Amino acid sequence: MRSGRGGTVFRIMRRGETAAECRLRLAGDHNVSNALAAVALAREAGIPLEIISAGLSSFGGIHRRMSLRGQGRGVTIVDDFAHHPTEIRKTLQAIRGRYSPRRTWVVFQPHQASRTRQLMDDFSRAFDDADVVLVPDIYSVRDSVEDCQSVASSGLVDRIRALGKESRYVSSFEEACEHVVNGAGAGDVIVTMGAGDVWKVADRLVDSVCPNE
User: Fold this and answer.
1) Rounded distance, CA 1 to CA 23, Å?
2) CA-CA distance, 201 to 181, in Å (whole number)?
């Protein structure tokens, strides 16, 4: 398997021999695993490997999964739906493998106070492949008053910092954008991440960094 800016190339093996070589426009070993599962199902349905391979090579992914939002001034802006520690970790690994960024900035909006509280340790360890993590307020959905009072984004920031990672609480999307625009430089990748409305940060960054997009 080989990964780069053009995507991922991998081989389909059958009885120890290469049956086909596929090119996937998506990055990350998790996407290769998903593709192989799709290959197995398609072969079970009798679809020839050459048709399967062509279909995989033309698949551009889905909305808010490592979506390239814009590039300008040497900066790349990516938006992703990841809101669980495992998703975050896998996505950031794939971004580092694809873009080989000088630095990776993440604006992560926690989703649900209850989930943030219950998985706090896992969240704090999910950003190994990030260089700077900005955390706005939690996007609360179906949370009780008690849940909302039991945890705050600043607590996650403290945990991330305790592990030696640069992290900062931002009180608004405007502050997040200002911090990124003032700090990001050529070769950096900016990732907006979460299941809430953090995609609005990507919109604003595209307007600020990539005005001609």
Assistant:
1) 10
2) 11
